[in-house]
Automatic annotation (TrEMBL):
Lineage summary: Eukaryota, Fungi, Dikarya, Ascomycota, Saccharomycotina
Gene Ontology CC: one annotated term: MICOS complex
Keyword tags: Membrane, Mitochondrion, Mitochondrion inner membrane
Biased composition, class Basic and acidic residues, residue ranges: 1-12
UniProt name for this protein: MICOS complex subunit
Function: Component of the MICOS complex, a large protein complex of the mitochondrial inner membrane that plays crucial roles in the maintenance of crista junctions, inner membrane architecture, and formation of contact sites to the outer membrane.
Entry annotated with the keyword Mitochondrion: yes
PANTHER family recorded: MICOS SUBUNIT MIC26
Stored Pfam families: ApoO (PF09769)
Primary location: mitochondrion
Length: 201
């Protein structure tokens, strides 16, 4: 009795693993003969993360462009304002102002607290006005404009004080001009009296 051989007609074929069949209702995919199961929640999270990262990147780029433009505008305004205010070369004149300020500090080194603060400031401001007159006037005008814009009440009070000081100075000048002839006459009489007394003696 001969031995029965099954599948004799396929003896030359090498068996291969069958590709796994995936049901249409499954979320798996067959890639290179391998069944890869998809996790819907993980895929959704990954998609949301990519969208969030893209949105954040666009937002950061927009903010960067905004602040860059704002910085450029600020630099341009500062440069323009600087050119409007500063009219003299800074290097030699600023050294003179600094020297005057240090001189005031040296002169007031043994004085009280207020004097030690005011003396260098006064020396520096006077030197600033003398060495850089145009820049000094432009700085005064700029500070006055800022004061009117941000501290209007203080500016009004300052104008009132300045007007009162100016009025008092004008009144003193008027009184001086009015009393000057009287003083001159009294001095003349005193001189004549001294001359007469000297001649008699």
């Amino acid at each position: 009795m001969t031995q029965r051989e099954f599948y004799s007609d396929r003896s030359g074929e090498s068996p291969l693993p069958a590709a796994q069949e995936v049901s249409k209702s499954s979320s798996a995919q067959v890639i290179d003969g391998k069944s890869i199961e998809k996790v819907n929640s993980l895929e959704l999270y990954s998609r949301n993360a990519r969208e969030w990262a893209g949105t954040k990147q666009e937002s950061m780029l927009e903010k960067f462009k905004y602040y860059k433009a704002r910085f450029s505008t600020g630099v341009a305004k500062t440069s323009e304002k600087y050119k409007e205010i500063v009219k003299e070369p800074l290097l030699p004149q600023s050294l003179y102002v600094l020297t005057a300020t240090l001189l005031g500090s040296v002169l007031a080194r043994r004085k009280g607290g207020i004097t030690r603060f005011l003396t260098p400031s006064i020396f520096g401001l006077v030197a600033f006005g003398i060495c850089m007159p145009k820049t000094f006037q432009n700085s005064k005008h700029s500070l006055s404009s800022l004061e009117s814009k941000y501290f209007p009440e203080f500016k009004v009070r300052q104008d009132m004080v300045t007007a009162a000081i100016s009025d008092n100075a004008d009144n003193l000048k008027i009184k001086y001009y009015n009393i000057q002839p009287v003083i001159t006459e009294q001095v003349t009489r005193a001189r004549r009296a001294v001359e007469d007394w000297w001649k008699k003696s």
